[in-house]
Amino acid sequence: xxxxxxxxxxxxxxxxxxxxxxxxxxxxxxxxxxxxxxxxxxxxxxxxxxxxxxxxxxxxxxxxxxxxxxxxxxxxxxxxxxxxxxxxxxxxxxxxxxxxxxxxxxxxxxxxxxxxxxxxxxxxxxxxxxxxxxxxxxxxxxxxxxxxxxxxxxxxxxxxxxxxxxxxxxxxxxxxxxxxxxxxxxxxxxxxxxxxxxxxxxxxxxxxxxxxxxxxxxxxxxxxxxxxxxxxxxxxxxxxxxxxxxxxxxxxxxxxxxxxxxxxxxxxxxxxxxxxxxxxxxxxxxxxxxxxxxxxxxxxxxxxxxxxxxxxxxxxxxxxxxxxxxxxxxxxxxxxxxxxxxxxxxxxxxxxxxxxxxxxxxxxxxxxx
Length: 369
Known about the structure:
Elements: H1 2-18, H2 20-40, E1 48-54, H3 59-69, E2 74-79, H4 86-91, E3 97-101, H5 105-110, E4 115-122, H6 126-151, E5 158-165, H7 172-194, H8 196-203, H9 206-210, H10 216-245, H11 254-278, H12 282-298, H13 311-316, H14 321-335, H15 339-366
Parallel strand pairs: 1-2, 1-3, 4-5
Antiparallel strand pairs: 3-4
């Protein structure tokens, strides 16, 4: 029995390793996933753009500014002269946080009183905001220790007061739940469409489609619409759960959100049909969908900031439709954005959708016969 079992195992290994497609499946996807996870999946902040609003301008406040200038993770973008300059910098994501030093910062420290220090942080990504605040606290604590050693005073010289915009309580649920709409819609759409043509080939019914009066464009459209409709229904259900059950505020334009969802699903359907046109079996379609979904999720900025990724990886994210849809979701939910603000995120999804559907249509016609 052991000999027969061993012979069968050897036979399976030989069959697996002799097939070029099987070897590609064994080697290619794991390497791609490893590279993507290794470079893109990081919760560290290596680049924190910030601005300083210093109303004191004393030697003490300048020494405090220098503590951030020398920090490796912080990159100073601007010096603010008035409060009106703060909102545009954070709204446009030019800076992650603003350090506001009050008018009596130096005088209060010299008198032995705690000097309040305000940090205004972009709270749209709650994880990133909390990590950035921890870095700021570390620098402030080190500054306090150095001050106490040099002056021998009691109490904390600098007292940190943080304020988060767009997500005042830094609720992680407000950040993740809107993103789940995009994640689940992508998974469903890809899985439904990635196996549709491959299923016809595997079951032997593809030739029957070819002899029907349906033209290739009509067949492709018939394969695309079910995935699109399912994605819209599922997105609506998740949207209702997010707002009614999890109480995530929806402050922006609902038509703009649905426009973003439709363009995103257009991209997902195009990618799914592209995979399905290349796949011969349902197993290959499923594997291709998985190979697309995992990198798309990691590179989208759903959990880790795109700004932390290497420049080459950041360039690759530009062809990821989920990247743009996540921005649409969070801007509509937390910022109250409309079409005027979201146009820069909508047209790339439309372009990706048209390109992927066009390529899928060409491959479909090319591989019909």
